[in-house]
Amino acid sequence: MLMFQLPGLFLLTWNPKLSIKHCQRLPSLADGNMVSMHASVKNKVLETTGHMDALLVHENDAVHKICAKLMNIKQISFSDINQVLAHQLGSVFQPTYSAESSFHYRRNPLGDLMEHLVPHPEFKMLSIRNVPHMSENSLAYSTFTWAGLLKHLRQMLISNAKMEEGIDWHVRPPLSGPPSLSKMSLNKDLHFNTSIANLVILRGKDVQSADVEGFKDPALYTSWLEPVNAFNVWKTQRAFSKYEKSAVLVSNSQFLVKPLDMIVGKAWNMFASKAYIHQYTKFGIEEEDFLDSFTSLEQVVASYCNL
């Protein structure tokens, strides 16, 4: 698991397949130093997360697939993975025009991001999806339209796809009004991804002609937040990287429910069998710390499940 902090914001990445055997203790540190280090780290984490506004979450497996399937990289390195992460973050935090003017850039994009996407302190998990994403060799032979890019991005959102390849086009938003049991079952089976709030950022040629009405559909969102407050769009005519047109979606949605629930389940099983617990307790981490963490994560999963 890798965690990167921005002011009021975390970027969190993990690999669910990562085994404890990959974690190695530094041999040059004595036990006393390890205790001191643990206390320092623990206090810093508590201090920081107490003021945390949101988490930008990436799954390493998903980033790895982007490298392999979209970037056509054969031997994937950490540098390749970091390039994808940097591309996604850059597509969000590069300047965009303010809502009031098409000539002046936003002065507080991070604050605006939090205002638009975190309307409730219990829901802080954010994901990033961007289109297009491809190798430079493929880019030279590709053309894009705003209608095509936004159609793919919307379907990636509702079907919880991490990239353009492999989108499930059978997933549809639930019908308005109280659905029948069969419709509820169908939507559940197709894994419709309910959103709390979404932000679409458009960069490139003819950006003012892009139609984002599909993201304003009330069926995409939880019932306790009006779509007018749940969706925002930022724009700039300046292209990003080498893409003539590009779109990025930052979403607060149920995207994390399945992987997080799986991780908590595996962690519970390891904890119940006392696997590796002694490696932590001898450095000051108590079993109560594990239980508190499980409770917090289970609450996150339950809250997002009930959207």
Order of helices and strands: EEHEHHHEHHHEHEEHHH
Structural class, please?
alpha/beta
Estimate the global geometry from the Cα principal axes: globular
Radius of gyration: 21 Å
Question: Which regions have little confidence, pLDDT < 50, spanning 5+ residues?
Answer: 18-38, 178-190
Give the tally of β-strands: 7
Tell me the strand percentage band: 15-25%
- The total count of helices amounts to 11
- What is the overall pLDDT average? 82
Detailed description of the structure:
The chain contains eleven helices and seven strands. With 307 residues, the protein is of the alpha/beta class. Mean pLDDT is 82; it is low at 18-38 and 178-190. A seven-stranded mixed sheet has the order 1-2-3-4-7-5-6. It has helices at residues 31-49, 60-70, 78-93, 109-117, 136-139, 146-159, 181-189, 227-230, 257-272, 277-281, 287-305, and strands at residues 2-6, 9-14, 54-59, 125-131, 195-204, 231-236, 245-253. Helix 9 packs antiparallel against helix 11 (287-305). The radius of gyration is 21 Å and the shape is globular.
Tag the structure with descriptive keywords:
alpha/beta; 307 residues; 7 strands; 7-stranded mixed β-sheet; single chain
